[in-house]
Amino acid sequence: MQRGILLFLCILALGRTAVIYKRCQVTRALNDKLLYDKRLTYLGDYFPKDYKMIVRYEEVLRCQNITSLINQGITVEELRYLWGIVNEDILIKIKEVLPDRHPSFGYITELLKIFKELLLDTITHQTEIIQDIMERLRKPDDTGPRKSVRPKALLDNCFRVLYALYEEECNLCNPSSRLMAL
C-alpha cells in the first residue's frame, strides 16, 4: 500500500516537472522574441513615430496591476492566464492593423503562436476578480474606458510582466539587469 502511494507521488511529481519544463521552454522562447531590440525594431522602427492604438484600460497590463491583483489574493497561475489572454488579444489587434507584407507581420504571427502554446498549459479556474476583468474584456469594443497607447509600449509591458510572473520558475534573466551589474 505504501509503495503504491509512493509510486503515485513520484509519477505525479515527474508529471508536474515535465509540464513546468515545457512551460519554461515556451516562456524562454517568448522571452527571446520579446527582447528589447526586437520590440524596438518591429514595433518602434517599423511603425510611424506617433502611431497609437486605442485599447481598453484592462488591456494595459503593467507590473503594478499584477502587484495590486496579488495583494487582492489572486494566484500567480490566475495572473499568468490573465496576462496570456490580454496579450494574445493585443497581438491580434496589432496584427489586424498590419498589411500582410508589413515587416512586423511575421513577428506578430510568431508571438501569437507562442502565446497560443503557452495558454494551453494554463488553468481555467478563475476567481471573481479575474472573471470580472475577463467579462469587461469580452464586452463590445465600444464600451468602457479607453487609452491611446503605442504598440511597442504594450509589448514593453508584456515583457516586464512575463519576467515578473516567470522569473523564478523558469530562471529568466533580465538583460537590462545584467548590463547594470557590469
Strand coverage percent:
under 5%
The oligomeric status of these chains comes to single chain
Number of helices: 8
Quick one: biggest sheet? Answer: 2 strands, antiparallel
Helix content: 55-70%
- Please tell me what the overall shape is: globular
Radius of gyration over alpha carbons? 18 Å
CATH superfamily assignment?
Interleukin-34
As for the CATH topology, it is Growth Hormone, Chain: A
Low-confidence stretches: 7-19, 177-182
State the end-to-end CA separation. 56 Å
Which CATH C-level class is it? Answer: Mainly Alpha
* Strands, total number: 2
> Which strands sit side by side, in order, in the main sheet?
1-2
The topology string of helices and strands comes to: HHEHHHHEHH
CATH architecture: Up-down Bundle
How many distinct domains? 1
GO molecular function, one term: macrophage colony-stimulating factor receptor binding
InterPro entries: IL-34, IL-34_sf
Keywords: Signal
Protein name: Interleukin-34 isoform X1
Characterize the structure shown.
The protein has 182 residues and is mostly helical. The chain has a single domain (28-177), classed as Up-down Bundle (Growth Hormone, Chain: A), CATH 1.20.1250. The chain has 8 helices and 2 strands, in the order ααβααααβαα. Strands 1-2 form a two-stranded antiparallel sheet. Helix 1 (2-33) runs antiparallel to helix 5, helix 2 (36-45) runs antiparallel to helix 7 and helix 4 (76-97) packs antiparallel against helix 7. The longest helix has 32 residues, at 2-33. 23% of the residues are buried.
